[in-house]
Amino acid sequence: MTPTTVFSLVNFLVMPMWLLLIFLPKWKPTKFLIHYKIVPIVLSAIYVLYILQALIANGMMDFGSLKSVMELFTVENAALAGWIHYLAFDLLIGMLMINQNKNVNIHLVLMAPCLFLTFMFGPLGFLLFMVLKALKYNPA
User: Fold this and answer.
1) Domain boundaries in the chain?
2) How many other CB atoms are found less than 10 A from the CB of residue 133?
3) How far is residue 54's CA from residue 56's CA, in Å, rounded to a whole number?
4) 10 Å Cβ neighbour count for 134?
5) Among 93, 70, 80, 75, which Cα is nearest to 48's?
């Protein structure tokens, strides 16, 4: 399977989970998928395969400077592993936000932008969620 095919498959795998988180977070199948972290586990397994391939082919990766990280991402399999890393961790953050919202009770209309922004821009959506959470706890 080519890296391009895997890239398409992991994007296809993660999209339905984000739609469930945004539009049906309280639906029983969504809760099941959040509880068991099935999609992030699958993504993590694929990530491990690509990281192991990269380690075997190129040895230890250098994350010690911006230049070395930029060079690393010029290798197709390493860039794919990095992309899968983003997908898995952003999705885990989205799931964490849904779980925390059980106690915070931010309205779903306000949660949707937080989740969408986490899907698209990771930390930006998480930051918005944390701001809303802080406002909900300290409304004055």
Assistant:
1) 3-103
2) 17
3) 6
4) 11
5) 80
91: tokens are 């999705």
Report the chain's C-alpha Rg in angstroms: 17
- In this prediction the pTM is 0.90
Residuewise pLDDT in 10s, the chain (140 residues): 898 999 999 999 999 999 999 999 999 999 999 999 999 999 999 999 988 888 887 778 778 889 988 888 888 888 899 999 999 999 999 999 999 999 999 999 999 999 999 999 999 999 999 999 999 877 66
Region of 109 on the Ramachandran plot (φ > 0 left; ψ -120 to 50 alpha; else beta): alpha
Whole-angstrom CA distances from 123 to 56, 71, 73, 90 are: 31, 24, 20, 8
In angstroms, how far is the first alpha carbon of the chain from the final one? 55
